[in-house]
Amino acid sequence: MMNEFDLIRDYFTWSIEDSNVVLGVGDDAAIFNLEQGYQVVTTTDSLNEGVHFSNSTPAKDIAHKSLAVNLSDIAAMGAKAKYFTLAISLPKIDQPWLKEFSDSLRQLSMHYKLSLIGGDTTRGPLNINITMIGIVESSKMLKRSGARPDDGIYVSGTIGDAGFCFWKLSNGLIPSDRELKRLNCPTPRVELGLELKNLASACIDISDGLEQDLSHILKASSVGAVIEVEKIPVSDLLQAHIKNTNDWSIPLCGGDDYELCFTIPEGNEEDLIKISKSCNVDITKIGVVSESSGLQIDGFDGPRKSYQHF
Ligand code: ADP
Ligand code: MG
């Protein structure tokens, strides 16, 4: 029979070359050295069965998403992710499930050269909590509060794909594999966040819906904005759905996209084109920051509600 410590050893102990990690998994706490001239950036995200994934979501997708959502937060700060801890609560020891989860987590973490430096393993309803630690050159972080009137408002990728997939599942429709991937296996915009650090005035990752997340930037920056729904980049299938229904609520309010929404002072369009190419991600201007407060959405005034847990 496998016990808690065998489980940690077999599934959650691996290392990458990082001379700054003094102590990883195995002691009472982890220790790493701080690099001169950098600040530490840290974030935590929990995934709960029934809220963030369903009981049919594969273990590999749960692992991917747990790490990706944290990588997305670190990217939105313009920081570089370095270390993470994993607190996991499991209803039972299911070795095939654990292997699939662990392989996927290790694969994605190795891709971004992240060290798993510790965690906690308990019995209970399935819950995954990852704390991620990153670094950024002192005072170079990208906050929500730097947007200024006349800055352009941009988003990466396409918006609403995860929400559209969720809408299909909720309405008994069968999404394609590509659509499921957008919901279950989001791509965090890691490279883009690092590039934007030198250009953007404010940034946020879209986890709860474009309207709500952009509003966080506006509030933190004490500004307003005007955006046009027709400019929001949406995938072909979602475009067709919007045409049929005249309803923009999915791209405006659907969560879980993990694209970046950011503001850029005027005159930086050429740099943005370069960044879009080097990061291999589309960047689209959807509006402009204004002096008056509030978010004006041109082209759609139907009912909508972004995600909130309570
Ligand atoms: P303690 O009882 O001192 O809190 P634990 O027995 O919980 O220590 O954990 C032993 C070691 O294993 C610690 O270094 C802890 O960080 C690590 N650990 C526990 N669970 C995990 C996990 N799921 N992933 C990575 N490391 C873990
Ligand atoms: Mg413990």
Question: Please, could you describe this protein's structure?
Answer:
- With 310 residues, the chain is an alpha+beta fold.
- The protein contains ten helices and twelve strands.
- It has helices spanning 4-11, 59-76, 95-111, 161-170, 177-184, 190-196, 210-221, 236-245, 249-253, 269-279; strands at residues 21-23, 31-32, 38-48, 80-90, 115-123, 127-137, 152-156, 202-205, 224-228, 260-264, 283-290, 294-298.
- It has a six-stranded mixed beta sheet with strand order 8-10-7-11-9-12, sandwiched between helices. It has a four-stranded mixed beta sheet with strand order 3-6-4-5, with helices on one face.
- A hairpin with a 7-residue loop joins strand 1 (21-23) and strand 2 (31-32).
- The protein is globular and about 60 Å long.
- The model has no long low-confidence stretch (mean pLDDT 96).
- Bound molecules: adenosine-5'-diphosphate and magnesium ion.
- Adenosine-5'-diphosphate is lined by residues 8, 12, 25-28, 86, 88, 116, 118-121.
Outline:
With 310 residues, the chain is of the alpha+beta class. It is built from ten helices and twelve strands.
Helix content: 25-40%
Q: Per the principal axes of the C-alpha atoms, what is the gross shape?
A: globular
* Overall pLDDT level: 96
End-to-end CA span: 40 Å
The major β-sheet equals: 6 strands, mixed
Number of helices: 10
